[in-house]
Sequence to fold (215 residues):
Amino acid sequence: MMFVLLFGPPGSGKGTQASALAGRLAVPHVATGDIFRKHLREGTDLGRLARSYMDKGQLVPDLVTCDLVASRLGEADAAGGVLFDGFPRSVPQLYWLIGHLAGKGRALSAVVNLRVPDELILGRMTGRRTCTNCGATYHVVSAPPAADGTCTRCGSAVTQRRDDQEEVVRDRLVAYADQTFPCLAQLRDRTPVHDVDGVGSISEVQGRIFGALAL
Fold:
């Protein structure tokens, strides 16, 4: 039974690594974004409650976020463990999770912390471009679109998403440092925390994570 937390700032490649790690651990990949989208799509009470904050441009409160996560942990496939991606985002969410697992006779098994310098993340994210039609992604340096700035798949316009603009990326990095990173300090005295170099190819970073967890 493995309950593992995967930490990493936005743009660290955490989502990509989470899928591979969940597969190796043979547990569900539990990402808060996926949970939110499911409840919004299905129009559940929790989904409508979350949307009431989102429609006002407000952050979904910790209590609502934790209720959404609890609903996912109550599903049958999560009984033997999960890989948490993007949760907890704050110390209060962390202590809720610890308490929730303890109430089920479970505990966190390990924490993986992907470390990537902010300047490298800025280069990754601000250079990203997305097709307005098919959603294909590019990077102005490592994987550019067509010479005329269009998508090589469908020929549509390729643009920079607002989330990838430098000011927004910097704000997200500050928010991570202020709200999420402190969770690691709280965890180091109670759970094995593995600091993993997140710089390199996908396979290189994956190998480091698997090695840290002795998988």
